[in-house]
Design brief:
Layout lengths: L1 H34 L3 H10 L3 E6 L2 E10 L3 E6 L8 E5 L5 E4 L1 H6 L11 H4 L2 H11 L2 E6 L4 E9 L3 E6 L13 E6 L3 E6 L6
Antiparallel strand pairs: 1-2, 1-5, 2-3, 3-4, 4-10, 6-7, 6-10, 7-8, 8-9
């Protein structure tokens, strides 16, 4: 009887130690997995959920709903009084932080099968801006310095764009153009259009 109790106690202690060691290994494995997680992976999950988020951009904050992820940008729709049709393209380099629901934040940590990147996820900011130039789409560009520019993208290079400045709501006609700006992509905090669908 005494020996049975002794062996039960030893088995219980051993099982507890194994369980504790397994939990420590699981926790370390999870920390290692998260250490390899990239912002794009989490944004992909948040965009799939159309997550509402407040984005901290240089000099200002915007309340949005995350929509689509590109190669180096995320598209959002505004939820802070601007037209819900207004689509903004936010370069990933301009995102200083996101305020988001804790449940969605934790869900974006979960492992998921990573499918091959969609065509949209391979589109760069330059690709989008070249498309806007081709379509003569009027844009509003907010710079990382707070500049608020309205106009039409005339052309977009590998890392910069040429913007013909004109008043909002007017077409890019020679008489309406007030000037030109050459902007490096690194100086762009957001590009807003009135298109409702991404290319």
């Amino acid at each position: 009887m005494h020996w049975d109790r002794l062996f039960e106690n030893l088995e219980g202690q051993l099982a507890a130690e194994w369980e504790s060691e397994r939990a420590a290994l699981d926790a370390e494995s999870e920390r290692l997995r998260i250490s390899r997680l990239e912002l794009r992976t989490r944004l992909r999950s948040l965009c799939a959920d159309s997550a509402p988020a407040t984005l901290d951009l240089p000099g200002h904050r915007i309340r949005t709903r995350l929509q689509s992820l590109g190669a180096d940008w995320v598209s959002v729709t505004m939820t802070d009084g601007e037209s819900s049709r207004a689509v903004r393209i936010i370069p990933l380099h301009a995102i200083m932080g996101l305020s988001i629901d804790h449940g969605l934040l934790l869900a974006s940590l979960e492992e998921s099968d990573t499918p091959a990147p969609s065509l949209r996820e391979r589109m760069t900011l330059g690709f989008l801006l070249r498309d806007f130039a081709r379509r003569r789409t009027p844009v509003r560009i907010i710079g990382v310095d707070g500049a608020d520019l309205h106009g039409t993208v005339d052309r977009a290079g590998a890392d910069h764009l040429d913007l013909a400045l004109h008043d909002p709501g007017t077409a890019r006609l020679a008489g309406a153009v007030q000037g030109f700006r050459l902007l490096p992509f690194a100086g762009v905090a957001s590009v807003q259009t009135m298109v409702t669908q991404m290319p």
